[in-house]
Amino acid sequence: MTSATQADWHDGIFEVLQRGDIRHVAYVPDAGHKRLIERCEADNRMRTIVLSTEEEGVAVAAGAWLGGQRAALLMQSSGVGNCINMLSLIATCRFPLLTLVTMRGEWGEFNPWQTHMGGATQGVLELSGVRVFRADAPEDVAPTVDAALRLAFDSSMGTAVLLGQRLIGRKSFVEE
Amino acid sequence: MTAANLLERRAVVAALVSDRRDLLVVSGLGSTTYDLAAAGDHPLNFYLWGAMGGAVAMALGIAMAQPARPVLCVTGDGEMLMGLGSLATIGVMRPANLSIAVIDNECYAETGMQKTATAHGVDLSGVAAACGLAVEPVADMDAVMRFARLLHSGDGPRFATVKVTAVEPPKVLPARDGAYLRTRFREALLGTAP
Questions:
Q1: How many folded domains does chain B comprise?
Q2: pLDDT tens for each residue of B163-191
Q3: How far apart are CA A73 and CA B17, in angstroms?
Q4: Assign residue A12 a region: left if phi > 0, alpha if psi is -120 to 50, beta otherwise?
Q5: Interface of A with B (CB under 8 A)
Q6: Could you list the residue range(s) of the whole structural domain that residue B52 is in?
Q7: Which residues in chain B have their CB less than 8 angstroms from residue A69's CB?
Q8: Which domain holds residue A72?
Q9: Does B157 reach chain A within 8 Å, measured CB to CB?
Q10: Number of structural domains in chain A
Q11: How far is residue A110's CA from residue B134's CA, in Å, rounded to a whole number?
Q12: Of the candidates B50, B58, B190, which has its C-beta nearest A92's C-beta?
């Protein structure tokens, strides 16, 4: 994958969030979200919120919407496991939630500790009442995020976009 | 603190919202939700009946979306302990309109009065101070009233731990349909639903 393509799909997400009037971007960082977080930080209309744990972001997003503004939540697949009980807030109160999840533990993963949540992410979200979309090709990312954003805020429900590890690139721990 | 100067939780929460004006309030699951309901139902109360550990983070979201409105999170020591990391997040975001009052009975009243960490000396105000929140000492009802006035001062984020007796007053149960509560809150705040 060329670096230009990498930049394109991250920028594509940013433009969808901007057009979708997302004002608060809460995150626990992931290397796969690095460029998007930087773009959001540089935008005057968006506030970025670095969280101690991903579940906080579910509650922050619900609170922001109660207050009349839209938020998005960025995390890595391992973080989905931290959100399980807090997702009761979304399902029970029919709050909108848009979360973008960068996947680990799947495409050629080096670190076996990542495979636990990597394999369970989609199931955990679906069992928690969140509608799951997935993008593995750069050209699918922006339209998928756009669809998930509209579904979340127009139909008032939890949606997640899983950004496949194949898209992000395998994390390298050793010189190859 | 000796038992002699522990406050009564219902009186504390009633005092905090006695002159609420444009205050937005989130209560944590368990006793503080009953306390807030007992003080008088209001569409701009958001009662949590679950999502333990999320009350402060939810109040942060509201405070960021509504910077001109004072926001109060009233929650218990057990609920606060589960969301301790959110104090660090608030220390970073520093919403000036947000206040947190922890009604600390040093036990999990909902599940049989098991001791929480605060019964063993863990100091929630100390944690909040270390995260950069303005901590108000609140040991009597005059101080509660002072904190209630500070909710409107707009120079937070503020934090208080209020030590209360472990006596559980009769439950006062507000609505628990979350979709109703959120629609009611949005309608009262924004004039639009859903």
A1: 1
A2: 999 999 999 999 999 999 999 999 999 99
A3: 32
A4: alpha
A5: 23-24, 47, 49-53, 55-69, 71, 85-86, 88-89, 92-95, 156
A6: 3-190
A7: 64-65
A8: 3-168
A9: no
A10: 1
A11: 45
A12: B50
